[in-house]
Amino acid sequence: MSAQSNPGPTATATSSQPSPAALQKAFDHAIWYALSLWPALHVACQNAWGGEATLDKKDWFAGAVSDLFTQDPAADQEDLEVFLLQIMQDEFECNVEDDSECAVAATIVGVGRGLQEGQGEQGLRGVRELEERWRNRGQMKINVQVIDREAEEEWNGFEDDDDVDMEAGEDAVPHLVPAIAREKVEPEVDEDGFTKVQGKKKR
After folding, report:
1. pLDDT above 80: residue 182
2. Among 61, 24, 27, which residue's Cα sits nearest to residue 42?
3. 20-54, pLDDT tens digit by residue?
4. Which of 1, 39, 84, 150 could form a disulfide with 101 if both were Cys (CB 3.0 to 4.6 A apart)?
């Protein structure tokens, strides 16, 4: 039987018991698929929050997650969650606050456990499911709220400051005080104590 031409993690399964190298390759692919399906990372890549090398950083991200488990086989889901958030902040300047990293970490840890404990094709089932989800990603609905934290802090600081310096916001808001002051006319009181009504023009 000829080998399948389509590359991917499932193409390496040519026997009922994949080799350790094949399992590692499948796990690496699974990590990449899981990260690619993460809406937060998807938005970060679309907007190039990682700079010109954003897409390369995504590939590096997958390799870094794989290395995490290679260097520390005892790493669990919580360790991975912290790692995912740290990379998103350091490399993509993105603070994930919707807890979506929990689902991503659970998926990766679950697939890794399945590959280690599963037998043959059964251990690769999770990888195939991730690959299928990734290939159908165009049908996904992405609902991510992007918050400009710096702008939000500036606005909150403006609201909380009781002694606001209006000059600081002069570029955004017209400064009307001087114009009003120029039109102010001191009232004129006659001999009987009545205030005279002034017209619009000074006499």
Report:
1. no
2. 61
3. 899 999 999 999 999 999 999 999 999 999 999 99
4. 84
b/e per residue, 68-95, with b = 16+ CB within 10 A?
Answer: bbeeeeebebeebbebbbebbeebbebe
d(Cα 129, Cα 133) in Å, to the nearest integer? 6
Q: How far apart are CA 52 and CA 144, in angstroms?
A: 22
Distance CA 34, CA 134 (A): 8
- What residue segments make up the domains of the chain, in order of their start? 9-139
Question: CA 77, CA 94: separation in Å to the nearest integer?
Answer: 20
First-to-last alpha carbon distance for the chain, in angstroms, is: 107
**Residue in the structure block whose two tokens are 């001191």:** 186
Query: CA Rg, the chain, in Å?
Result: 31
